[in-house]
Amino acid sequence: MYNKPITQRAKSPLKKDKPGNIVVSNTETIKGTEGTAGTPGTSTTTYSYSGKLSPSVYDDLQKEMDSGFAKKKGFEGTDVKAYEQFKLGKMKSPNVTATTTQTEGTPGTPGTPDTEKKTETPIYTRDETDAIRPYAAYQNRIVERREGGKLERSAKRSLNNLAKRHAQNTDDAGATGFGKFLSDRQQKRDYRRGVDGVGGEKAQELRDYRDGVSDVQLDMSDNVQTLERARDQRKQGASGNDAVISDPRLANQPDILAADVQGQISNNVGDVEFTPFKKMYAKNVGIRAASPMKKGYFKGK
After folding, report:
1. Cα-to-chain-centroid distance, residue 209
2. Is 2 exposed, middle or buried (0-12, 13-18, 19+ CB in 10 A)?
3. Which neighbouring-strand residues pair with 250?
4. CA max distance for the chain
5. How far apart are CA 120 and CA 110, in angstroms?
6. In this structure, are residues 17 and 279 in contact, taking their beta carbons and an 8 Å threshold?
7. What does the pLDDT look like over 173-194, one tens digit per residue?
8. Cα–Cα–Cα angle for 31, 35, 37, nearest 5°?
9. Beta bridge mates, 121
10. pTM for this one?
């Protein structure tokens, strides 16, 4: 039977990215507020006269005001008493006192600038697969358990061989005969158990496989997908080769031409974008970020 290796080489070294999810991005401009202008300060000058004028002087002042002479000289108003103070002040009379009152203005309020708000609407799709027969699922479970047991036995055998080599290469403090036998047995036991970190990472990896606690053996994602698929199949009443529709999932780049994806894109205002995914260097054997197989590695060299 063909045994699929735990690690695999990348089909193409230049295609190391998982497809990004599809989102509709829309940028909305929010109008800012306008600032309000402040009020300027005012300056008021009041003239006061401490002397007395004869009534004939008031008559002359009234005539000047009526003839427009007062307005021509810069006086705005109709009060004869005020014009008297204004005129005497212009003549620099010692009986006239000018008082200036300054009022401060109020500052204005600044406005806020326009801002942009970006919203992203995710796009969803659903997978259509063939229904799986119970016997086929049973066969898959048998193969999985068989390969898991073979992995545990192979790891146990390799760990025993390394423990034997470790005991051979380790000094027995001059013990001979039965004492050397006991020393080698203790050294092999310590190696298999990982006492004080004996064996390093390689031995620890084999111990994980032997005990069934490695990442690949603890990965329950396949079981979860099988369970979800079985429930969808039962809920939809599918059997044999009938089509089974999965639960909605985030659409990615290969789903761009699907009818449901195109329908969601047309109903949402914005630009279609693809959210980036991390590069898959770690899962591609022999390919790293600084590898010559990476696109653009020789640029500028």
Report:
1. 37
2. exposed
3. 124
4. 150
5. 32
6. yes
7. 888 889 889 999 998 999 998 8
8. 155
9. 24
10. 0.42
